[in-house]
Amino acid sequence: MGRQDVILSTGLSDSLKAAVEQIVHDRLFVLTDETTLHLCWPLISPLPCMQGAQMITIAPTDENKTLESLAHVWTALQQGGATRRSLLICLGGGMVTDLGGFAASTFKRGIAYINVPTTLLSMVDAAVGGKTGINFGGLKNEVGVFNGAKAVILDAEFLRTLDHENLLSGYAEMLKHGLISTTEHWLELLTFDLDNIDYARLTQLVAKSVKVKERIVEEDPHEHGIRKALNLGHTVGHAFESLALEEHRTVLHGYAVAWGLVCELYLSAVRMDFPHDKFYQTRLFIKEHYGKFPFTCKHYPRLLELMAHDKKNLEAGQVNFTLLADIGDIRINQTASKEEIEDMFDFYCSE
Ligand code: GLY
To answer: What is the pLDDT of residue 315?
Structure first.
């Protein structure tokens, strides 16, 4: 996977122009979902470099990260005369950048694409690092490829279009980045005022977060080793998310990750001696801003099943965790017994 050019934009117009001009292309396509078509496309549609771009629009939200939406993008590229030298701009949240990146990576065996993430979650996670894909057979991100965008443009202007819940959702991934980097970074995140957002400060924190992710992805692009650090909070988080989906409860990804972080830090404290004061402070912060995932012991068997099916497990039936011995002291490829996992859930439920 080639190195991605992550551009911290101070003006969308100039950054986009520079990125588009740098990639030689015959036709330009812009992928949006119905939401970003209305909220975000108007911010870039007047730019000279966007004139003549052909629009492709898909239905929003993760439920539509499907084979049908993917086929719609392939069809639109084909009917729009796309060749191997065409360029696709993915303008949207993680759903658009994941699916668009996969469409571009597979169409005619791969065309160039640029990510312009419009949510905090996609800026700090999905759009950076080259993971692309769709949900399939009831499982999230089941089919996809590693293939980075030629450029990723991060522009703080989009953050102002986000509601508080979506902002918090992205912030959970930033918190994860803090936990896997340094105590100083983690403290900065814990002391940021989420109720009165200072957007300039948030932009600096986004840049810091992306650097943590970039550093790890550069070292291990295909997730054979240290990239698994980025899965902290996700083993449990994904299970919460899938359970919520089955029960038709709406849960934003970052909220599930935040709740997953509490569980996995508990396991880290029990198994790896993760410092109790840091665990306590993190858990207090998460509880204050994200509340709690409501579930009871009747859900344990299903949660265990969901975790056992995670594609990140190394062996069938064995649940793989990333744990911490301290902030930045990462222990990948940890497994836990059914009893340890149930004890972790008991702790979470009783808190
Ligand atoms: N979202 C985790 C990763 O990109 O590896």
So the answer is: 67
The two three-digit tokens of residue 317, written as one number: 């039936």
Q: Tell me, in angstroms, the distance from the centre of ligand 1 to residue 350's CA.
A: 30
Per-residue pLDDT of 283-319, as tens digits, reads: 999 999 999 999 999 999 999 999 988 767 766 667 9
Give pLDDT tens digits for 193-237: 999 999 999 999 999 999 999 999 999 999 999 999 999 999 999
CATH architecture of the domain formed by 5-162: 3-Layer(aba) Sandwich (3.40)
125 in ligand 1 pocket by Cβ < 6 Å?
Answer: yes
Q: Domain extents for the chain?
A: 5-162, 165-350
Residues in a beta bridge with 117: 92
Atom 5 (ligand 1) nearest CA: 230
CA distance linking residue 138 with residue 143, whole number of Å = 11
Alpha carbon nearest to ligand 1 atom 4, residue: 129
pLDDT at 157: 87
Q: Please give the distance, rounded to the nearest whole angstrom, from the Cα atom of residue 312 to the centre of ligand 1.
A: 11
pTM attached to this predicted model: 0.94
Question: What CATH class does 165-350 carry?
Answer: mainly alpha
In ligand 1, the atom with minimum distance to the C-alpha of 223 is: 5
How far apart CA 310 and CA 239 sit, in angstroms, is 8
In angstroms, what is the span from residue 231 Cα to ligand 1's centroid? 7
User: What's the DSSP call for residue 146?
Assistant: B
Judge whether 208 and 214 are in contact, CB under 8 Å: no
Q: Hey, which bits of the chain come out as E strands?
A: 5-9, 28-33, 54-58, 87-92, 112-117, 134-136, 139-143, 151-155, 320-326, 329-335
Which of 95, 227, 241, 310 best tests ligand 1's pocket when mutated (most atoms within 8 Å of CB)? 227
